[in-house]
Design a protein that fits this description.
Blueprint lengths: L11 H8 L17 H10 L13 H13 L3 E4 L10 E4 L11 E4 L9 H6 L11 H9 L5 E4 L6 H9 L1 H10 L1 H22 L5 E7 L12 H7 L1 H13 L4 E4 L8 H8 L3 E3 L8 H8 L4 E3 L4 H6 L2 H15 L5 E2 L12 H13 L3
Parallel strand pairs: 1-4, 4-5, 5-6, 6-7, 7-8, 8-9
Antiparallel strand pairs: 2-3
Length: about 350
């Protein structure tokens, strides 16, 4: 399928205005925490987006991002520091997606991570945020089109996730009962690490939004108790929000799962500006916006399972229904409920974008 001939002119100003609930936007804006690399490559091949670019140049991936995101109608590219690699224990399985990942799909070990004791804590190779590269951010600072911005994100603000990944979910649950000082030590390391990261991101003028990503829940509740999240996780996000707001940037939060038990904390104490990641079996984005839309923005929400199974007519109807319910007054940006995964039929993703374009003036 082809996207409409009429291009979407980026406007990061209007994207940010919509996130901050500053009135009904003049057109639909789009947002995603990421598009899987396989999806990006398939779109670039199908629409010949990389013609004329030299793939041997170091900036080729950055040029690719600009062409891809502009073509799809986004107002931004997403970028963070590079070289912030965390040593984790993973298992790899075959990827059976329609656009399969070379080398398979990997999963973090839920039983035991690389830090299960104080000895392992002391010997763990913590990434140094001071040494992480900002080359990509520096290139975007000079070369990104003026009507686009950088969303500071990517490998960033995983306070809950890194507690889980570094210890292993089972180990973390036990440690919360009998070794809370070790949990606190890891949490403080993460706090110190991401404090440096956000300060470095905010040094770049083209970074207009900060987006933390940190799954904290599952279908019926939070992965650890709300009180433990308040003690070990939410202070980190509060710091990210405070730093972002002091620099005049909104702070967005991507977090999967049922967060009703801590939503008031996220809004009133952490002071996030927008919530991302919605699943129909937990709460639809329409219901969320009815409940919280006068206080924070809702991002995305076209359920991933729905996008995988629905036909074109159903997708278009769902997008129209969502936009009619969520766009008035601002505080909504169109996108999937989670991310553009490589198992979502590519045509279905493009249909979602196309229906949003049809509402543009």
């Amino acid at each position: 399928m082809e996207l409409p001939d009429k291009p979407v002119e980026p406007s990061w100003h209007e994207l940010v205005s919509s996130i901050l609930r500053e009135g009904t936007p003049r057109r639909v804006h789009y947002i995603e925490i990421f598009l899987d690399g396989e999806v990006q490559d398939a779109i670039c091949r199908q629409f010949h987006l990389l013609d004329g670019l030299d793939s041997d140049r170091w900036e080729f991936p950055l040029q690719k991002q600009i062409r891809l995101m502009r073509f799809l109608g986004y107002d931004y590219v997403r970028c963070g520091l590079e070289g912030m690699d965390w040593s984790l224990r993973r298992s790899v399985t075959e990827d059976t997606a329609s656009l399969p990942r070379a080398g398979g799909r990997s999963y973090v070990d839920e039983h035991a991570g690389p830090i299960t004791s104080w000895e392992e804590f002391e010997s763990y190779p913590w990434p140094d945020p001071h040494k992480a590269s900002s080359n990509a951010l520096e290139w975007y600072e000079q070369n990104l089109p003026q009507n686009m911005c950088v969303i500071g994100s990517g490998g960033f603000a995983h306070f809950a996730e890194h507690l889980t990944w570094l210890m292993g979910y089972e180990t973390l649950c036990c440690a919360l009962y009998d070794e809370r000082d070790l949990v606190e030590a890891i949490a403080q390391k993460l706090y110190q690490n991401y404090n440096v990261v956000v300060e470095r991101l905010l040094q770049f003028e083209r970074v207009k939004v900060i987006w933390g990503s940190d799954d904290m829940g599952f279908r019926t509740g939070t992965l650890i108790s709300p009180n433990d999240l308040r003690e070990f996780v939410l202070p980190g996000h509060k710091l990210m929000a405070q730093k972002s707001h002091a620099a005049g940037r909104p702070y967005l939060l991507h977090s999967c799962g049922n967060l009703k038990a801590i939503m008031e904390d996220l809004i009133e104490d952490v002071q996030i500006d927008a919530k991302h990641s919605f699943e129909d079996t937990i709460e639809s984005v329409i219901d969320f916006r009815l409940r919280y839309g006068h206080r924070i923005a809702a991002l995305g929400g076209i359920d991933v399972d729905f996008l995988c199974r629905a036909d074109e007519e159903q997708i278009r109807a769902r997008v129209r229904e969502t936009l009619e319910a969520c766009m008035p007054g601002g505080g909504y940006v169109l996108g999937t409920g989670n991310s553009v995964a490589n198992y979502i039929p590519l045509r279905n993703y493009l249909v979602m974008l196309d229906e949003g374009r049809r509402l543009a003036p």
